[in-house]
Amino acid sequence: MFKKLKIQLLTINAICLTIVILIIFLGIYYITLYEMNLQVSVVLNDIARNEETVSLIKGPSNNVKMVVSSSFFIKINKYGKVLGYSKNINIPKCDITNLKNTVLKKGIQYGNIKTGHLRFKFLKVPKKYGFIIAFIDNNMEINLYTYLIISFLFVGTISVILVIIISLYLANKAIVPVKTTLDKQNIFIADASHELRTPLAVLNSTLEIVVENKDKTVHSQMKWLNNIQSELFRMTKLIEDLLFLARVKKEEMPMSNFNISTTINNTYETFKVLTNKKNIELVFNIENEIIILGNEWRIIQLINIMLDNAIKHTPSNGKIEVCLLKHNNICELKIKDNGEGIPKEHIEKIFERFYRVDKSRSRSQGGTGLGLSIAQSIVDEHRGSINVLSTIGIGSEFHIMLPITF
């Protein structure tokens, strides 16, 4: 699939850039053609008006001048008889007669004629005695056009080769994010399917046991019914987390100024109950009156995720410390624990969806593997950053930096 996509991108880029090059050349070619015709027309008019030959043509910049290899005129009466011609003419008299007859036969005032190896532009102007026909050698103009075409073919060929090389490079670069996104999507689908398959399997097995013992009372089967309820709760939580991650990328988050110091302090009592159950010391060091622009509900959700994660991974008699500090226009939230720590090879992956350092343990604790991914999304919404320092056996320290205004 990616090979086909790369070929399509390469083809589109090559065609578009080739069309641009062709348009540029045609523009240069027709502008040059117009300028040359304009200059030649001016020269022919000067010859016809003054009855004198011209040896130089001024270029578009009025500085560049091009030498005319041959220009002359022929005077004829109303009956087509030659009355005279310019002194500098250097072609045989028979050719003069042929040129005159060819012009009269064409019946037009301005155009091109060819006789033998000679090519001329001509202008026929009426006079009192009849007509004057001014001629100018057209070989130089033709040679210039030929040179332009050959130059374009040479430069165009090189340009097309470069275009193909550049297009191939751009196609490869363009495919990388697409491939990465698709790979992540496939992993996400596989992980979500796996996460849902497990509780569904448990539900199915548990229900089979209940059905097989249909003669028993509800009270006697409470163990199995509680398992069903637990798995349903876990599936509900998983689906809610998935929906949140889907919405957070699409919905515009409402923002307002609020006191983040008060918001975090208000969560202390809730988590104090949970830490007391595990005999964990919970310490809040919150700098007062820090006002930030953001979404208060999502900041509450962020602190809930981070503290819930810290409690799960901190053993009994451990310690969790929450700090909030202000540095100029940055608000720093630090959550530190003295739990088991995170191995170095896992640190860069813990914010990925469904990623768990210890899958069996996280599942037994009721985790979905989406908590830190949601935390990352909330921090990104607030244009902040989140990183972690961790040492095995010593603990982990999460640092969240949030701009006060943006």
TrEMBL record:
Keywords, A to Z? Kinase, Membrane, Phosphoprotein, Transferase, Two-component regulatory system
Which cell locations does it reside in? Membrane
Per its record, the protein catalyses:
ATP + protein L-histidine = ADP + protein N-phospho-L-histidine
Recorded hits in CDD domains, A to Z, give: HATPase, HisKA
Q: Which GO terms describe its molecular function?
A: phosphoprotein phosphatase activity; phosphorelay sensor kinase activity
The family database entries (InterPro entries) matched by this protein are listed as:
BphY/WalK/GraS-like (IPR050351), HATPase_C_sf (IPR036890), HATPase_dom (IPR003594), His_kinase_dom (IPR005467), HisK_dim/P_dom (IPR003661), HisK_dim/P_sf (IPR036097), Sig_transdc_His_kin-like_C (IPR004358)
Task: Give the GO biological process terms.
Answer: cellular response to phosphate starvation
| Catalytic activity, EC | 2.7.13.3
What is one cellular component GO term in this UniProt entry? Answer: plasma membrane
Q: What is its main location?
A: membrane
Q: What is this protein called?
A: histidine kinase
**Protein species of origin:** Clostridium felsineum
